[in-house]
Design goal:
The protein has 328 residues and is α+β, with helices and mostly antiparallel strands. The protein folds into 2 domains: 3-132 and 294-327, Aminopeptidase; 137-267, Gcn5-related N-acetyltransferase (GNAT) (Aminopeptidase, 3-Layer(aba) Sandwich). It has helices at residues 3-11, 23-29, 82-99, 118-122, 141-146, 150-161, 173-185, 194-206, 251-263, 278-285, 304-327; strands at 35-42, 45-56, 59-61, 70-73, 105-109, 126-135, 166-169, 210-216, 222-231, 234-242, 269-271, 290-300.
C-alpha cells in the first residue's frame, strides 16, 4: 500500500488524530484530491504522519475550513524521558522536511500540541504564533455558565427574554447557507468557498459527526445559525451565519451556548477554531475559553506565475462545475 492508503486505514481506528487531519475531511476540503501524507515508521508501525496539501506544483499550503494540519505524533510512542522524547520528535521532523516534495512556497498551521519547531528553523523556515481558544471540559454546564463573561450573559438573557428566541437543532442545509451567505454579503465580500462548506456539512451530518443549530423568533425568522462538527471527544466550531437585520438580538451567544450544552453529551472538549480578529476573539473569550498558542510555519513566497496559476485553476473548476447547469 502507498503511504496515503496506509494513512486512510490508520484514520479508521486512531482516535487521537484531529478532525482536520482525517482522510475524509481532507477529501472534502482539498480540491481534486491534492492532499498527501508522509509516514515515519517504527518496525512497520506508524510513529508519525505529516499531512500536506499541494494545490499546484511547488506549492504547499492550507485548504479552506481547515484550522491545522502539520505533523501528528502517535501517542503510543511517547517516551517518559523528556530529553529522549524531544530528540525523537526532532529526528522525525527532520525526516519529514527532507522528504517533502520540492517546493518554493510552504505554509502550514500546526496543531497546538506541536510545540518544538526547531528542526524547521534549522532548515530555513520561519514561524509566527497564532492563538486558538478551547473549553477543556464542557460537562459541567453550571460551572461553564458561571465562567461566562458579562457580555455573553447579557446577550443570552436578551435573546431569551426580549427577543423570545428558541434554539432548534437539525436545521436544513439550505437555510444555513442562506444565513451564511448573508454574513458575507452584508460586508460586500465574496462568499468563502461555499461549495466546500456544503460538502463538509453534508458528509459530517451523514457520518453523525456534525449538526446545525439556529436561533428562531416567534415569527419563525432565523437570526443566527451555527455548524459544529465533532471527532472522538472534541467538538469544533466550524462556521456561522447571521441575519444582519437581527445583529443586536444576542442570538450569536445564545445559539452557541445552547449548542455547547447539547454537545456535552457527546464530547468533553469544545474547540472554537480560533480567530485573530479582535471582535471575534473577544466574543470567544467571553465563553471562558482557555487560550492556546499554535505555530504557523512558512518558507518562501509564491511568485506571480504561481498566483495566476492558482486563480486560473479555481476559475476552471468553477466553470467546469457551473457552465452546464447555467447555460444548457
Amino acid at each position: 500500500m502507498t503511504d496515503k492508503e496506509q494513512y486512510r486505514e490508520l484514520c479508521k481506528k486512531e482516535l487521537s488524530i484531529p478532525i482536520y487531519s482525517l482522510d475524509w475531511w481532507l477529501d472534502c476540503v482539498c480540491e481534486n484530491n491534492k492532499w498527501d501524507v508522509l509516514l515515519f515508521k517504527n518496525n512497520d508501525r506508524i510513529e508519525a504522519a505529516m499531512i500536506y496539501y499541494s494545490p499546484a506544483k511547488k506549492i504547499i499550503t492550507m485548504p479552506a475550513y481547515t484550522q491545522t494540519m502539520g505533523i501528528w505524533f502517535n501517542p503510543e510512542f511517547e517516551n517518559r524521558n523528556y530529553s529522549d522524547n524531544l530528540y525523537r520528535k526532532q529526528k522525525i521532523c527532520c525526516f519529514f522536511i527532507e522528504h517533502l516534495p520540492v517546493h518554493t512556497f510552504f505554509l502550514q498551521y500546526f496543531h497546538s500540541s506541536f510545540t518544538d519547531w526547531l528542526p524547521f528553523y534549522w532548515n530555513g523556515y520561519k514561524q509566527t504564533t497564532r492563538y486558538n481558544y478551547i473549553l477543556p471540559d464542557i460537562n459541567d454546564t453550571d460551572k461553564l455558565f458561571k465562567c461566562l463573561g458579562g457580555d455573553a450573559k447579557r446577550n443570552i438573557a436578551k435573546a431569551q427574554k426580549k427577543f423570545k428566541l428558541r434554539i432548534e437543532r437539525k436545521i436544513p442545509l439550505d437555510l444555513f447557507m442562506e444565513q451564511y451567505n448573508m454574513t458575507f454579503k452584508q460586508k460586500g465580500l465574496k462568499v468563502y468557498h461555499p461549495e466546500i462548506l456544503v460538502k463538509i456539512i453534508t458528509i459530517c451530518i451523514a457520518r453523525n459527526q456534525g449538526d446545525i443549530w439556529a436561533a428562531i423568533d416567534e415569527q419563525n425568522r432565523i437570526h443566527t445559525a451555527v455548524f459544529i462538527a465533532w471527532q472522538n471527544d472534541c467538538a469544533y466550531y466550524i462556521a456561522a451565519g447571521n441575519n444582519p437585520q437581527f445583529k443586536k438580538s444576542g442570538a450569536n451567544a445564545y445559539t452557541l451556548w445552547k449548542a455547547i450544552v447539547d454537545i456535552k453529551e457527546q464530547v468533553k472538549t469544545f474547540d472554537f477554531s480560533g480567530s485573530m480578529l479582535q471582535g471575534v476573539e473577544h466574543f470567544i473569550k467571553e465563553f471562558g475559553a482557555v487560550q492556546l498558542p499554535y505555530f504557523v510555519i512558512s518558507k518562501g513566497k509564491m511568485n506571480l506565475f504561481q498566483k495566476i496559476l492558482l486563480k486560473r485553476k479555481s476559475l476552471k473548476e468553477y466553470v467546469k462545475k457551473n457552465i452546464q447547469k447555467t447555460y444548457f
